[in-house]
Amino acid sequence: MTFQDFNFNGQLFEGIESMGFTTPTPIQEMAIPVVLAGQDLIACAQTGTGKTGAYLLPVLNHITGTAKHQTSVLILAPTRELAQQIDQQVEGLAYFTGVSSLAVFGGGDGMAYEQQRRGIQNNVNIIIATPGRLIAHLTSGVLKLNHLTHLILDEADRMLDMGFSDDIMKIISYLPKTRQTLLFSATMPGRIRSLAKAILKDPQQINIAISQPAVGIDQQIYRLHDQQKTPLLQLILRDSAYASTIIFASRKEIVKSLYKELKAIKINAMAFHSDLEQKEREEILLKFKNKQLPVIIGTDALSRGIDVEGIDLVINYDVPGDPEDYIHRIGRTARALTTGTAITFVNHRDERKLKNIEQLIERPIRVVGLPDELASIQAAPQSHTDDKRKPSRPNKRWGQKKPKNSSSNSGGSAS
Ligand code: AMP
To answer: Which of 69, 141, 208, 386 sits in a 20 to 30 Å window from 328, CA-based?
Structure first.
């Protein structure tokens, strides 16, 4: 299938070409015809599958040409980072269509609020918003959504996790009853189905290989104790094969202390967490995107939505408690059909969490042996390793990435 098969209008086509999209991804192949037909849709797809294009393209096709000076499309997203990324895709795809868009999110100063207010008053065609800030503009009376034709919920599961359920229902109470509603979620727990029941009409359903990591990710684990974690990290980061790395930790305190440890050993890394000002967070992300910053350390907040191309390596400094978060974390690499490596550090306390992940992805993750030089590092008295499984082989070679065509243990099919 090609993009020509969808019969999009010419201006949108130029946008698709300028973004370098040549072939639709599987979620796009499945979702675009449904949305073009005007049906409601519930789609289970993770970030990295091309899901944003799957809803943006048909919606842009609908409003291009017919877009008046009014807000026709509302996209709700859980975080400001995701909202900004969606806005960037809108700007790229809609560049030649004359459709206007605005990202509306919390944080920032009074000036940011004022800029958003002015954009809203200008009746931009598409608003991409986090729920809390949108409600502020709705209740202040500045924003009127009487002419809305399309509502999209992106990463709906994350929005519910973050406690936005009531906000979503409140926002919907401001919208016309006749509209097309599209719900995208990485997972489909019962509460998402209840939400879908409440806000969608006879929706079509699409599942893209639920909860499977992208095929191009080489997943590895190291079994180790806590005192070996930072020395191992140091060895891996000194490996020149990895130009762009994200390190995930479960709590921001760990992120902060890891940042200090890496700084002390002169590794160029920055910490990304909620205590930073929005401007600082944006600057860090920009540096990382521009490849001026090789290493970024963050919590799971960073695992959703960050859309940076060419990340070679994801390191899980600890095992995430929710197996879905593992998929999100490692999904930062190998985006849009490329390859990458995901390494997870597993101490004895995290064995149960690892088991849950392996159950979810329906395969064991390859165990790599610790480099010899780390063997002599003693565990702290209260900690001990509990290696039940033998590692496949010791890993002494740091300058080597898995060859691109290697097929070993690279996860199931996401697309
Ligand atoms: P998403 O899952 O929407 O976050 O998209 C992940 C990445 O894939 C983004 O960088 C998109 O620009 C890119 N992308 C989306 N659709 C395509 C496509 N058909 N061909 C190539 N890249 C794409």
So the answer is: 386
